[in-house]
């Protein structure tokens, strides 16, 4: 597709991800300076709680623990504080494979990912305060009621949906169309949730298409998830609202919560007494130096799906055979990292010439100003204009959907293959067909 675009426009479009990368690198350098001078000299030798990983979960846990003034809490994060540029929703795909991303790659797959370069799937994962909520597409989706109920049934006490719902509401600051639905939504929480601010006419058509098939327009976080919707997003005034913004910044700094970015945890320190294993501290690396901090009460591991399992294994908690192969002293033989599951994402592109949506031209200054001053316009868009949950014939229950559709108002190559293609890792061969 690139060849159809005049060279000058191609250079202009290509320079956008490059400029964003420059911003991100400047932020990394600034953060090194800030942490070295203003943060690192002031941490203590021990805290009541150490939270390892300041992502979507870790930021919330650390903040909630520090609500009790009697506790001192340390939050360790390998990445920096997010740069402002990452709060512009439209640029979401350019954030992958930057220093804000761990850029995990799967092994080449045989049964799937055949449209991706070398059959390898990109697993984007946040390496930044706010974690995945800085890199994701900001869709506010809590998950299905029956999944929570099932987890409780499997022995996880307290995880039933009726129990969890109170915490969703406590977390939420609903500012969109469900503001008065207090059965399912909260308005006093720290996490801002809004309606999307920029849609094409295709969003409406998507809902209509659902109705033609017999599905209703639903609140996917309400009573019944099955149906069609125009998604809600974790944004505030049209800007990305990460869990770091919700729980760590914006006036939520507390003297008993110490946030240490650019510090990479390498081990949980444990002691054995009376046959019980107790976590007593964390070893981490900061600017090439190894440091130790003691935890008087607990260590909380919230380093994401891959990171948490890896840290536990580095600490000797994991499958015996694997740890022996790597010559790691075994603290506890546990099936850490097992039962890993991922969902398949399948892209279908349809062209509709009257309603074609393209990203705004980089020199469209009205769009820039509309974003900066009004929190509106194409830059507020995460491009996911519609979403649906439906139950296929393989699902046990019509209210327990097994298919989720993300309806994008532009094709995977609408940006001339400059950003989305490498971000997902789509192969040249498949990209030509889109
Ligand atoms: C990807 O997988 C397909 C199907 O298994 C195989 O034919 C192809 O050679 C693989 N390509 C690479 C680059 O591994
Ligand atoms: C939820 O929606 C599905 C599909 O539209 C329907 O079959 C089901 O009866 C609905 N459940 C409730 C509780 O409304």
UniProtKB/TrEMBL annotation:
One of its GO terms (molecular function) is flavin adenine dinucleotide binding. The chain crosses the membrane at residues 7-25. It holds the Pfam family GMC_oxred_N. The keyword Protein biosynthesis does not apply. Signal peptide: none annotated. Keywords: FAD, Flavoprotein, Membrane, Transmembrane, Transmembrane helix. PANTHER family: GLUCOSE DEHYDROGENASE [FAD, QUINONE]-LIKE PROTEIN (PTHR11552:SF227), GLUCOSE-METHANOL-CHOLINE GMC OXIDOREDUCTASE (PTHR11552). Belongs to the GMC oxidoreductase family. This is Glucose-methanol-choline oxidoreductase N-terminal domain-containing protein.
């Amino acid at each position: 597709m690139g060849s159809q675009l005049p060279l000058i426009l191609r250079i202009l479009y290509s320079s956008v991800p490059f400029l964003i990368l420059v911003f991100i690198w400047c932020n990394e350098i600034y953060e090194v300076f800030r942490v070295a001078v203003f943060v690192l000299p002031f941490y203590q030798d021990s805290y009541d709680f150490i939270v390892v990983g300041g992502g979507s979960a870790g930021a919330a846990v650390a903040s909630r623990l520090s609500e009790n003034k009697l506790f001192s809490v340390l939050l360790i994060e390998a990445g920096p504080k997010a740069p402002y540029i990452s709060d512009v929703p439209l640029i979401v795909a350019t954030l992958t494979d930057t220093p804000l991303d761990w850029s995990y790659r799967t092994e080449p797959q045989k049964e799937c990912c055949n449209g991706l370069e070398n059959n390898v799937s990109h697993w984007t994962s946040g390496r930044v305060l706010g974690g995945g909520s800085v890199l994701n597409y900001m869709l506010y989706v809590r998950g299905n009621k029956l999944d929570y109920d099932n987890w409780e049934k499997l022995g996880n006490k307290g995880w039933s949906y009726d129990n969890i719902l109170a915490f969703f509401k406590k977390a939420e600051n609903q500012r969109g169309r469900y503001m008065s639905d207090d059965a399912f939504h909260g308005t006093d929480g720290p996490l801002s949730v809004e309606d999307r601010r920029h849609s094409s006419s295709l969003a409406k058509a998507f809902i209509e298409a659902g109705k033609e098939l017999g599905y209703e327009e639903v609140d996917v976080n309400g009573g019944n998830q099955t149906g069609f919707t125009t998604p809600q997003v974790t944004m505030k005034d049209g800007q990305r609202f990460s869990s770091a913004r919700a729980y760590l910044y914006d006036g939520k700094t507390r003297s008993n919560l110490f946030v240490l970015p650019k510090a990479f945890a390498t081990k949980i320190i444990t002691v054995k007494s009376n046959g019980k294993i107790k976590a007593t501290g964390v070893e981490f690396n900061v600017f090439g130096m190894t440091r130790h901090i003691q935890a008087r009460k607990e260590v909380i591991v919230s380093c994401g799906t891959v990171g948490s399992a890896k840290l536990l294994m580095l600490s000797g908690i994991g499958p015996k055979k694997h740890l022996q192969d790597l010559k790691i002293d075994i603290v506890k033989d546990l099936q850490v990292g097992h039962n890993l599951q991922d969902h398949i994402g399948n892209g279908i592109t349809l062209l509709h010439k009257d309603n074609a949506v393209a990203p705004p031209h980089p020199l469209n200054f009205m769009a820039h100003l509309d974003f900066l001053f009004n929190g509106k316009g194409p830059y507020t868009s995460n491009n996911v204009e519609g979403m649906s949950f439906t139950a296929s014939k393989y699902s046990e229950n019509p209210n327990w959907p097994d298919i989720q559709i993300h309806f994008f108002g532009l094709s995977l190559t609408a940006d001339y293959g400059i950003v989305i293609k490498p971000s997902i890792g789509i192969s040249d061969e498949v990209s030509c067909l889109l």
